[in-house]
Design goal:
TIM Barrel, eight-stranded parallel β-barrel, binds L-Erythrulose, binds manganese (II) ion
Length: about 270
């Protein structure tokens, strides 16, 4: 069964980003639960930003799962990436993500590596950058597996990384480097920019997709852009996708309406 989720960002520095909720954790969970979401996805400033026991109480109270935890604050707040030319920065990036994986695992949730992958800098060595990324994902994937959770790697559009922009390049990269404990995130916003045919890419890479970011072509909540979601939903059903479609979209026109629009689209697409 495909499950619904909405993002909650708790990092003031990225308040203007594509998050359905970005204010209070409990209020956001209460609203998501009221609308009937299965889960929420959390963006926190660090692995110790939330008290795990208190968060578990909220999970019980609102009957929600944690779909995933994002690691992007490591880049946005601390300038860390897995492909920084400086080995000391790469090491700090690994530690930051390792701690986020442990935090996620304490809530039964996988961690996502998106912007923490970084980019090849101008004049930088692309092969070296990809080697650093592979080494980081291999190491962190094993850490995740040892805690019983997946690790999720996210191809991003060309404005956010010059490393890997499509699902099929992601699959080739994981296979070539024998990265076994890492799955791929199909972010439908990035895919709208980078894939020639979104449903075909989903079908071709189906075995590797473990998480989906659910947003329309303009990154507004699904139903406010021009992506052909009927075909996307059909492809996800055809690959027997069983994970979350997690709304990582702008809170347009506001969080409450964005969440309501998302759950309505989710029900239309996946509950019939
Ligand atoms: C950023 O554009 C994104 O899609 C996030 O999920 C990555 O951290
Ligand atoms: Mn995303």
């Amino acid at each position: 069964m495909i499950k619904s989720s909405a993002t909650i960002a708790l990092v003031p520095a990225i308040k203007s980003g594509p998050w359905i909720y970005w204010d209070d954790l409990e209020q956001s969970m209460a609203h998501a639960s009221f609308l009937g979401f299965d889960a929420v996805e959390l963006f926190t400033a660090s692995a110790d930003a939330l008290d795990t026991t208190a968060t578990k109480l909220l999970i019980d109270k609102y009957q929600l799962q944690i779909a995933a935890v994002g690691t992007g604050a490591g880049k946005v707040m601390h300038g860390l990436t897995l492909t920084d030319p400086d080995v000391a920065v790469r090491k700090k990036a690994i530690v930051f993500i390792e701690n986020m994986i442990s935090f996620g695992a304490s809530l039964n949730a996988p961690a996502i590596i998106g912007s923490m992958q970084g980019s090849v800098s101008v004049g930088g060595d692309r092969e070296k950058s990809l080697e650093w990324l592979a080494a980081g994902l291999n190491y962190l994937g094993k850490h995740a597996a040892s805690l019983g959770v997946k690790l999720i790697y996210e191809p991003l559009n060309r404005n956010e990384t010059n490393l890997i922009n499509t699902l099929s390049d992601g699959v080739l990269f994981l296979k070539k480097n024998q990265i076994n404990h890492v799955g791929l995130l199909a972010d439908l916003f990035h895919m709208n920019m980078e894939e020639a045919d979104m449903p075909a890419s989903i079908r071709a890479c189906g075995d590797f997709i473990v998480h989906v970011h659910f947003a329309d072509s303009n990154r507004r909540p699904v139903g406010n852009g021009h992506t052909n979601f009927k075909e996307v939903a059909k492809a996800l059903q055809e690959i027997n996708y069983q994970g979350y479609v997690s709304a990582e979209a702008f809170p347009w026109p506001n969080s409450q309406e964005a969440a309501a629009q998302t759950i309505q689209s989710f029900k239309q697409l996946f509950k019939n």
